[in-house]
Design goal:
207 residues; alpha+beta; Glucose Permease (Domain IIA); 2 domains; 8-stranded antiparallel sheet; 3 helices; 14 strands
Length: 207
């Protein structure tokens, strides 16, 4: 099973501590650390995904549940009325994040903020987050990695000027979170609230 590179920063100490405790006669505590090590590998798993080839198809940037859709959302990042779609990631979802569309990364901004529960409607504006803007041939796509009550660490490898390739990995959020995506008005949605989506493979909309 492939895992994200960040996993080893958590796996190695947990596994080493657990192994040592078992060896020196503390099996109960040691096994607890080994269970934690196993969970780390589960959390940081990075499965292969089949990326849709149609360039107009906007794919989900994250695994999770479509939590909310606003079809008349004023996006302060673009100054326009747009469609906003929010995805909630539980602690059990894959947390690798992928580009939803191909284009050029125009902006990457890390913002400090609160740590409200990811499903709280105020989390999108008030929580710590990274904001990314991609200029695609079919309009600007804005998406946010948003921390939650448990997830307090955003990892974003993207930087302004990068070439974004749909489905390629650009970061992750540790231990549960939220992802918001805004798209041009008139975009044809392919999902509804309550749908489960997979990062890089589930089509959210057609641009």
């Amino acid at each position: 099973m492939k895992v994200a590179g960040d996993a080893w920063n958590f796996f190695v100490p947990s596994f080493a501590t657990g192994t040592a405790l078992v060896y020196f006669g503390y099996p109960v505590v040691g096994e607890l650390f080994l269970i934690i090590a196993g969970f780390v590998l589960f959390f940081f798993r990075d499965p292969t995904r089949v990326i849709p080839s149609d360039p107009r198809e906007l794919v989900s940037p994250a695994d999770g549940l479509v939590h909310k859709i606003d079809e008349d959302w004023f996006d302060p990042e673009t100054g326009e009325k747009r469609i906003r779609l929010s995805i909630f990631l539980s602690v059990f979802n894959v947390h690798i994040n992928r580009y939803p569309v191909s284009g050029t990364v125009e902006k990457v901004e890390i913002r400090d903020g609160k740590f409200l529960a990811a499903f709280n409607h105020m989390a999108s504006e008030e929580n710590a987050q990274s904001v990314l803007v991609i200029a695609s041939p079919y309009g600007r796509i804005v998406f946010k990695q948003i921390v939650g009550l448990i997830a307090r660490r955003i990892v974003c490898w993207a930087k302004a000027g990068d070439v974004a390739v749909k489905g390629e990995r650009f970061g992750l959020i540790r231990f549960g979170s939220r992802m918001d995506v805004t798209m041009p008005a008139g975009t044809r949605l392919k999902v509804k609230v309550g749908d489960k989506v997979s990062g890089g493979s589930s089509v959210l909309a057609t641009l």
